[in-house]
Amino acid sequence: MKDITVGVVADGGAAGWLRVLAQEGIAHQIADIPDSPVVLVSGRSPAWLEAYVAKGGVAVVSGARQLPFDIDDAGSAVVSGFETPVGGRFCAAPGLVTRFPGAGEGVLRLHEDRIVKYGSDPDRFPVVLSRRIGAGAIVYSGVALTELLMAQGDRLRAFCEFTEVTERVAAVDKADVADTLLHMLRLGFQRAGLPMVRLPRFPGGARSVFILRVDVDGAYAPHTQNLVDAARAANLPASFYVNADLSSRFPGLPDSWPAEFEVGQHAQAHTLFDTYEENLANLKEGRAWVEARVGRDVTSFVAPRGMWNASLGEALAQIGYSYSSEFGLDFDSLPFRAEGGILQVPVHPYSPERASRWAEERGVTPPGGEETRDYFLAVMRRQLALGRPMHVYGHPEVLGGMADTVVPAMAAFALREQTPCLTLGAYAAFWQRREEAYPTVRYDLAAGTLQASPADSSLPLIIEVWEPTNVRVRERETRLPAGTTLIEENT
């Protein structure tokens, strides 16, 4: 039997592919000379690509340029984004793309934001295409998806189809970029006639998790206590991150905290600094202030204003923190390792406080408790449907005044959908254990048999069988996404 490992070419976009493979828990290796049935490439094609595909290999290429196999392109274009190949969501992804004509999935538009007249919507190009060549196949996109996934940079913009509220978030919808790369990888396994084996994204093979995070940018008595009481009454463990400066100016922290709640820090000064030394000092001062007031060790942090840079990551590693969550780097995504190694657990960037300020700036009525509740529930439904974490946040200033309306409804939704309710730290701990549990996957195409086992026996495997349906599977535990077929070996 032969090991199934995905090969990753060590090119300029390899980091993006490696992030997706780590997020999905798929066994992989760097492959300068490929011997894997599926190989991932970014940008220009390596010299061996034609021979590899002709012999039966499957190449999945992000940011394709000047492809072999007589595949012609229609030149380059600058776009603001694309419609995803799964679900047709618009993905903000500004940049230079290569346009490939032909049949495919997703939509790139040369003429963006134009009214369709006479029924004509010209110069539309697919985002993802595939072609069988010889004994193998190629799956490709002219969008530099892997580079977009890893690029930093944030701006003030709308970020969700359910609201016009803006926030300073990552300039790229990276969760949709990652989903598009995963779709291409799935197509690669399908073209190879192999099942794809991956780890579950959530504890127990659940469809999602629910995390309530509160950034205490001022305690605003009794609002912080309101949030603690509402969450505790709903049996919902929550994560509170306390900023020292603003909580000094707007006091009212609870006298005691439930043991099951997470209390972290949100820095001394409510901002990000350029240098490692400034960020480290801000962390140390914030930790000391919070520990003196909550009476427990503080071992976690999220950055003020959702901002991130490499020097902050270096400071977090120095102080001994292992995870954080900054929507200026990414939001709505699965966890991933940021530059420097800190685990990021992305959050949804909407807060009732920002929504209220946005409304006041426009002279309209700020959202009330019921509207806020309905918004968060809509986001949770979407994240659940997409298989992503339901991780939402707010502050005591406004959310604390509507806690009894919003918090129980979110907890009840999670309970109905049988999704675990965790602190941010608990989900980070699950993810850190998962990172060491890549499965061993072996197959025998002649016999049509596949064997798979996870490195951690407490983690189930997800085996997606695409085609053909003559692959027999042996493993410990299986959960299949909708629309896939599993034929188990009769032993």
Structure, described:
The protein has 2 domains: 2-192, Rossmann fold; 203-433, TIM Barrel, CATH 3.20.20. Helix 5 packs parallel to helix 12 (403-416), helix 7 (276-294) packs across helix 8 (310-319) and helix 10 (369-386) runs parallel beside helix 12. With 491 residues, the protein is of the alpha/beta class. The strands form 8 sheets. Strands 3-2-4-5-11-10 form a 6-stranded mixed sheet. The protein is globular and about 70 Å long. It has helices at 14-24, 49-54, 145-150, 174-192, 223-233, 244-249, 276-294, 310-319, 352-361, 369-386, 396-399, 403-416, 424-434; strands spanning 2-3, 6-8, 28-30, 38-44, 58-65, 76-83, 90-98, 108-109, 124-125, 129-133, 136-140, 154-158, 166-170, 196-198, 210-216, 239-242, 262-265, 323-324, 336-337, 343-344, 390-394, 440-444, 449-453, 462-464, 472-474, 487-488. InterPro entries: Glyco_hydro/deAcase_b/a-brl, NODB_dom. Residues 217-323 form the NodB homology domain. Pfam families: Polysacc_deac_1. This is Polysaccharide deacetylase family protein.
Kindly, what is the distance between the CA atoms of the first and last residues, rounded to a whole number of angstroms? 18 Å
Task: Give the name of the CATH architecture of the largest domain.
Answer: Alpha-Beta Barrel
As a whole number of angstroms, the C-alpha radius of gyration is: 24 Å
Low-pLDDT stretches: 474-491
Alpha plus pi helix count: 13
Main structural class: alpha/beta
Percentage of residues assigned to helices: 25-40%
The CATH superfamily of the largest domain appears as Glycoside hydrolase/deacetylase
